[in-house]
Amino acid sequence: VQLVESGGGLVQPGGSLRLSCAASESIFRIYSMAWYRQAPGNQRELVATITNSGNTNYADSVKGRFTISRDNAKKTVYLQMNSLKPEDTAVYYCNMPRVAAWGQGTQVTVSS
Q: What is the SS3 assignment for 10-68?
């Protein structure tokens, strides 16, 4: 399975971005998906997960600001990020845990 992220960029504090991750295989619809992030010098951390039926979980640091969603017909998972903070700066990775598939990552930089 190939995962391709898009949507990263530079945004000011308080701004918003939406990340997308497109999967290459139809098995996307039967598996949970996750977003991780890794800031320089830090370990990769789990940001959010979504099951095949749409149940979601979030890291405490992003609760109330980020929303994970999926479109099974488009084989795509999204991460809507609002009220961004400088500490959200990281490379964001899409993950399909069941098959240990990772995307290439997309850089998100929050800075004035």
A: EECCCCCEEEEEEECCHHHHHCCEEEEEECCCCCCEEEEEECCCCCEEECCCCCCCEEE
